[in-house]
Amino acid sequence: MNMNIHELKEYRDKHHVFADRRDAGMTLGSMIKAEYGSIKDGLVLAIPSGGVPVGIAVSKTMDTPFDLIIVRKLQIPGNPEAGFGAMTLDGCVIINELLRAEFFLSPTQIQEEEMRVHAELESRNNLFREGRPFPALKGKTVILVDDGIASGYTMMASIHTVKREDVLQIIVAVPTAPVRSLEKVAAEVDAVFCPNIRSGPYFAVADAYRLWYDLNQQEVIVLLKRASMTKNVTIKNLAGGMI
């Protein structure tokens, strides 16, 4: 395995190792802190929605500023649960070419989905971040956080966006992931922290948690509002309400 992947051996191939996302984030924060100590000029960037409680816990554990990176998967037409890639707010697109070919997706279908997702990204940025400019990343150590990696395309799109900003280094922190996706991600960054690595043909992020459910937008807003009261979180004055 790639030497820059850090795991907890006792969690390898186990299910339900975390109580919830907050517990997973605290575990991640402790792992990174044990390896790096206090990171100067660090910034945690969480992927909404599921990555928010994980990222907040990492941020608090490490006493590192927190913000969001807005990214969404590109959905296969007629199958909202499946994605053929991912897109970030700044227009970075990563496509799974094997799936694109398997589903015979045309350039027009891809363009239409990119337009739909771009509008959704703008909406989520306005809702969660009030449309604030993306934070300056030059010279920073960026910690990208989600509640897990499945195919890895959402995280890969986030990595490519951050790489454009001349950062000092990139750390990926996820509670759980399959070996095949983690190796792909690790090749693009300086370090990966993933306490619960799993092998085998079947993988589901939810299987790492004893308490798991999809967070809705209102729950994310509440978490961000609470987090904004702490000294190390950069998100302020988030709007309420649903879209």
How would you explain this protein's 3D organization?
This protein has 243 residues and is an alpha/beta fold. It has helices spanning 21-36, 51-62, 97-102, 107-129, 153-163, 179-186, 217-227, and strands at residues 5-6, 42-46, 66-68, 71-76, 79-88, 93-95, 141-145, 169-173, 176-178, 191-193, 196-198. α1 runs parallel beside α2 (51-62). It starts with a strand and ends in a 16-residue tail after the last helix.
CATH topology description of the largest domain? Rossmann fold
Categorize the overall geometry: globular
Count the DSSP helices: 7
What strand line-up does the widest sheet have?
A: 1-10-8-7-2-3
CATH architecture of the largest domain: 3-Layer(aba) Sandwich
Amino-to-carboxy terminus distance: 43 Å
Rg over alpha carbons: 17 Å
Oligomer: single chain
Per DSSP E runs of 2 or more residues, the count of β-strands stands at: 11
* Main sheet characteristics: 6 strands, parallel
Number of domains: 2
Quick one: CATH class of the largest domain? Alpha Beta
